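Suppose you are handed a protein chain with no further information: no name, no annotation, nothing but its sequence. What can you learn? This example shows the usual starting point.
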Amino acid sequence: MTSQWDYFLKNLGQWQGSFTSLSPLGEVREDVKSILTLEGFNNNSTVRLVLQRFPPNQPPHELKLEFTSLSRSLLFCETGAFSQGSMQWSPFSDFGAELSLIDQDRRLRLVQLFNTQGKFNQLTLIREKLAGTYPPEKPDLTLEQLLGKWVGEAITISPDWYSSEPFPTELLIERTTDNRILQQLTWGKGDQRRTMSSSAIIDGSRLLFDQSNLPVQILLLPDGASSNCPLEIKLGHSFVLEVGWLIAPTRRQRLIRRYNEKGEWVSLTLVKEEKTA
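A reasonable first move is to predict its three-dimensional structure. Written in structure tokens, the prediction is:
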């Protein structure tokens, strides 16, 4: 049986890219070049991480870490995609998570952070490629690229490393008026099949789902990326943190970190989907 450590090893290599800081509304604040090296030692029983960042007009910043085991706040999927972050949200504490997707020689990572009042206040988009490769970066994501029917398959992993059987997903996104979309998500098999509908206001590259107890926004970002999270977290309401990546015009991945109404992290879901209409 493949282990979490084996999935971690799919991220080995030197990843060249940048850390782009954005406002909660998706406005670019700063872009910093980066090199992240993950190297295995002792027959890959130890992994060394070296992160170098090169802020403009400043000395380089360097971070070094070694791993011989994995934190319980970190989960990997079979592709090498992963998420790490807070295991529990509570009032008056900082909170956030990183979500990372991988496709051949490219990685796309997203860090979503919330302040001590539970308000979404910082977003970092990290775009990387393996050294010695030259895959093109995707254009900025647009709503038109997302409209239509997406059919896929998902696997959910719990923090105790239990993995579900693959289950089907279906996502329909359609424009209902000039400034609003309707989204319908269906998932599961047989008696476990569920459907959820939601509506959002279109505000440029921002989709605001304003009809739920926790208003949620999706930001359409560079490199085909999207960020999905609540604008504010409140006790008693479940929520998700999600990154999406349009890898090709009809192929997309999403990684979803789910929290229950007590603020407890309960699962990580990887969705691979194809546009069919």
